[in-house]
Design goal:
Distance between the termini: 165 Å
Shape: elongated
Structural class: alpha+beta
Radius of gyration: 60 Å
Number of helices: 21
Strand order of the largest sheet: 8-7-6-5-9
Number of strands: 12
Number of domains: 5
Largest sheet: 5 strands, antiparallel
């Protein structure tokens, strides 16, 4: 059996030895020397303490162990004689320390021998592995192609195990190197102590403490020798670990080469899948048997726990024993329950593994639907993450169970040492906890195997999904876009509202908007006018047709995308609240526009006047109306203005409008002639209607004029009223001027009262400058 220096007992022993070598005073050996001198074997003791006497060659491990054993036996004989002669005297601590060091030296020699033998075996194993690799590279695998897919899968499993072994060996090598550094530092310190002890001994040859210093020197030399041998042992072990890593690297290279060779001619046949599924069925049957057994164990543990509880309640026996018995059956019940739960998980995992193998077969044989592969990949990834979480939880439970096991083993040792009656039940608890550790460890191993299967399947799936051509690249790009396109934003009445439906709906609504606009414009400008419909009616029908077509396209879009109309039950309320609080003016103008289109108090092409603004109605929209004035200025008027204010529509029911022109002539002018000339000016204008006939009225005798007014009718489809009135005024002026009839202007007549003479005075310049006050004084 190999005894490792890195063990806890060895570490404690060496720390104790180091402290002893530093703390042992010289007087201790001085007091022990008289006793040794009286002993017949004192000379042998001195010889036994010498570390260099009869040393065997470095490779003769048996001889070296024999020398160390003889030295140990002689030292034990000396200590036995000292104890026999003086039982009450404690043996010198230096001698007991040397005895422990000699025992440990024997163990180190044994380990060195094992390390040397292991080195030969490892070298032979590395050579065999190298030959196997060369043969594999030259001749290929021993199996005949085409190779089974299960063979390739087993090679992958073995390769994963080799990688795990290499990681473990590398970790052990790193730990051994750090420990070797510590041993080297300890050896340097031991050498310093040895040199100091030798110097002290050489300087005190004639001193009474010479013998004690000699014993101290021998102990220091022995301690340094032990540390040096340990250093050699650790160096040999490190070399063995390096050889192990080299062999492992060759093994990994062989497996990689074999995987590469098998992978080129592998075939996943239906027989392979059937064999794999049959193995899974066999494992499922074993799990079910374990389930039945675990269920029986749970029931029995419950029954035994109940019986133990009744005994404890009746106090039928030792209370402490009954308590441990109750605790043992409670622990057994918990362990069997956890085992039952883990077995159920294994059954569920078995269903998953069977499904993964079926999917893997379809992936490898490329019979899986290409559109389903991204969903499979997501499923595999989620399963791996779920098993990662389960594995972490199991590790925590396993660590807790190990701590419980350590505590229970400690209690069991104490009970056995005390020969307590509770020992059998404590032993039962230890066994159950060991069972729990075993079950948890098996579950972790099973989860690791399932994860490796999932990762291999995922890698094979990624290889198939990887684009190998432009077509594959487009297909791989299309799948994420398709997934995003089908992403569900929400659901209404169990109908999914996806991103694709929203985008298609928006596009259809935009297309419906432009198509509705084009069709309604064609209806209002081309079709309806051909049926003799006037411009205003055609424009109103065009607007109404636009909104109807837009609503039709909206409902058609909802029906085409299977979006329930009930969505507007919620949206309608939300919109109503938003409109009510934030869009009152917009809603007011929108409703006013609908009223204008329905009642038609104004129409497109009408000449209307509102708030002193006169113009032609160009367009009646949903929110506003466009009015074009005579100055060719287009003004946007909110629709509500036409309902809230007084509006003059000059062409609402009739385009004929009566207007008039006023003129005043001087007193004394021939009134009949003036009336005839006014009628002549009106009749000569082409835009004045003959029916109703114009009329000339002698309005009144003004202050300065004789007032006449001529009335006539015109058509006001556009703003021509002022133009016609201006033309009539020009014509009247020309006719009256030709007839030498004056158009009067404002004037004042001054009448003088001559009943008394007028007072006329003439003032000089100086009097004028003097101002009114001087004139008043002169008059006085």
């Amino acid at each position: 059996m190999t005894i490792r220096f890195a063990s806890r007992a060895g570490g404690v022993l060496f720390r104790s030895a180091v402290l002893t070598m530093i703390a042992v005073p010289c007087l201790l050996f001085a007091t022990a020397l008289p006793v040794l001198a009286q002993s017949p074997g004192s000379d042998n003791a001195a010889g036994a303490a010498s570390p260099v006497a009869g040393e065997a060659p470095a490779t003769d491990w048996a001889a070296k162990r024999k020398v160390a054993a003889e030295r140990r036996q002689r030292l034990q004989q000396v200590l036995a004689e000292l104890a026999a002669r003086q039982p009450s005297v404690t043996p010198p601590q230096g001698l007991t320390t040397q005895l422990e060091l000699l025992k440990y030296l024997e163990l180190v020699y044994a380990q060195q021998q094992v390390a040397a033998e292991s080195a030969k075996e490892l070298e032979a194993k590395r050579a065999r592995q190298h030959d196997e690799l060369q043969m594999l590279r030259s001749a290929g695998p021993t199996e005949k192609p085409p190779y089974s897919f299960l063979l390739l899968d087993s090679l992958h499993e073995e390769l994963a195990r080799e990688h795990a072994r290499r990681n473990g060996a590398q970790a052990e090598l790193d730990t051994a190197k750090r420990f070797l550094d510590s041993v080297r530092r300890t050896h340097e310190e031991a050498e310093r102590q040895r040199r100091a002890a030798r110097e002290a001994y050489e300087a005190a040859q004639t001193s009474p403490l010479a013998e004690a210093l000699k014993a101290r020197l021998e102990a220091a030399e022995l301690y340094s020798q032990v540390i040096e041998e340990v250093q050699r042992l650790k160096t040999a072990e490190i070399e063995n670990k390096k050889k192990t890593l080299a062999t492992n690297d060759l093994r990994v290279a062989s497996l990689n080469a074999k995987v590469a060779a098998v992978g080129k001619q592998v075939r996943f046949s239906a027989e392979d899948l059937t064999a794999c599924l049959a193995e899974l069925k066999r494992q499922e049957g074993e799990i079910k048997q374990d389930l039945d057994r675990a269920q029986t164990n749970v029931q029995q543990a419950e029954q035994r726990w109940w019986e133990a509880k009744q005994q404890l309640d009746r106090r039928a026996g030792d209370r402490q024993v009954l308590q441990e018995q109750l605790a043992a059956w409670q622990l057994a019940q918990d362990v069997y329950t956890q085992e039952l739960s883990l077995l159920n998980e294994r059954l569920q995992d078995g269903v998953l593994v069977e499904s993964v193998w079926r999917d893997r077969y379809r992936i490898v044989t490329r019979t899986a639907p290409q559109e389903d592969l991204p969903n499979w990949r997501q499923h595999f990834q989620e399963s791996i993450e779920r098993f990662d979480s389960s594995r972490s939880s199991l590790h925590l439970r396993l660590e807790e169970a190990r701590l419980d096991l350590a505590a229970q083993e400690k209690r069991l040792r104490r009970a056995r040492e005390a020969a307590a009656a509770t020992a059998p039940w404590l032993e039962r608890q230890v066994q159950d906890t060991q069972r729990l550790n075993q079950v948890l460890g098996e579950q972790v191993t099973r989860i690791d195997a399932i994860q490796r299967l999932l990762k291999k399947t995922l890698a094979e799936l990624d290889e198939q999904l990887a684009p190998h051509s432009g077509k594959d690249w487009l297909a791989s790009t299309w799948q994420p876009l398709k997934k995003c396109w089908q992403y569900e934003l929400t659901a209404i009445d169990d109908q999914p509202i996806t991103v694709g439906k929203v985008v298609v709906g928006i596009l259809l609504l935009l297309a419906g908007y432009f198509l509705s606009r084009r069709v309604s414009r064609l209806l209002g400008t081309r079709i309806l006018p051909r049926f003799g419909m006037n411009e205003g009616v055609a424009s109103a029908l065009q607007t109404i047709a636009f909104y109807l077509l837009l609503a039709t396209f909206g409902f058609f879009t909802l029906e085409l995308l299977h979006i329930p109309v009930t969505v507007f039950a919620f949206l309608g309320g939300a919109i109503a609240i938003g409109v009510g609080f934030g869009s009152q003016n917009v809603l007011n103008n929108f409703i006013s526009g609908l009223i204008l289109l329905a009642e038609r108090p104004i129409r497109v092409g009408d000449l209307a006047e509102i708030d002193g603004l006169q113009g032609t109605i160009e367009q009646i929209g949903a929110r506003s109306t466009r009015v074009k004035t005579g100055a060719n200025v287009e003004i946007i008027v909110p629709n509500s203005k036409f309902l809230e204010n007084n509006v003059t529509n000059w062409t609402l029911s009739d385009t004929r409008v009566r207007t008039s022109v006023c003129v005043g002539v001087a007193y004394g002018s021939p009134t009949r002639e003036v009336a005839r000339l006014l009628r002549q000016a009106v009749d000569a204008h082409p835009q004045i209607l003959r029916q109703p006939e114009p009329a000339v009225l002698f309005q009144s005798f003004g202050d300065n004029t004789l007032n006449f007014e001529v009335f006539f009718w015109i058509c006001v489809r556009r703003s021509i009223r002022r133009d016609v009135e201006s033309d009539i005024r020009f014509a009247i002026d020309d006719l009256l001027r030709a007839a030498q009839i004056s158009i009067a202007f404002p004037q004042r007549d001054i009448h003088l009262d001559t009943t008394r003479p007028l007072d006329i005075r003439v003032f000089g310049a100086d009097q004028t400058l003097a101002g009114p006050s001087s004139r008043v004084s002169r008059a006085a």
